[in-house]
Amino acid sequence: xxxxIHQLLDKLHRSGRLRTVxxxxxxxxxxxxxLLGLVLALPIRILHGRIDRVSGSVPALLVRGxxxxxxxxxxxxxxxxxxxxxxxxxxxxxxxxxxTLRHELVHxxxxxxxxxxxxxxxxxxxxxxxxxGRRAYWHNRFEIAARKAEKHFPPES
Length: 157
Ligand SMILES: [Zn+2]
What we know:
Layout: H1 2-15, H2 17-29, H3 31-46, E1 50-54, E2 60-64, H4 66-73, E3 82-85, E4 88-91, H5 98-114, H6 118-131, H7 141-151
Parallel strand pairs: 2-4
Antiparallel strand pairs: 1-2, 3-4
Helix pairs in contact: 2-5, 5-7
The structure holds zinc ion.
């Protein structure tokens, strides 16, 4: 039986279906967050914005527009280039780099892994950093992981 499961998983892995199944589970698990992201995405799209599908290893929608620019400029943590809510990445119209997008896609993956508890885990990580005399945003473990991924991204051409 164990062998059969192993063979099945191996077959799925080789066909790439395991990744597809894992991606689908991640999308469903993070759906409450993505729906919240869509609530923000719709007015951005309606007010002269656009929504593009991000191609790559993680499914995500990239939302940009004048309203996104204003929201990111007035973000409670300070001006931001982009932010991810579930599988929705809201970004400025100008100056979105591949590194920034990679950073946000790590947050998309984190949301896919943590699902609806991700915002609480994120806040707990910030509280943990503060309790240890560190900066809530900069030393948040999820931000550290996203910054690490940025560095491993090939330089832009
Ligand atoms: Zn981040």
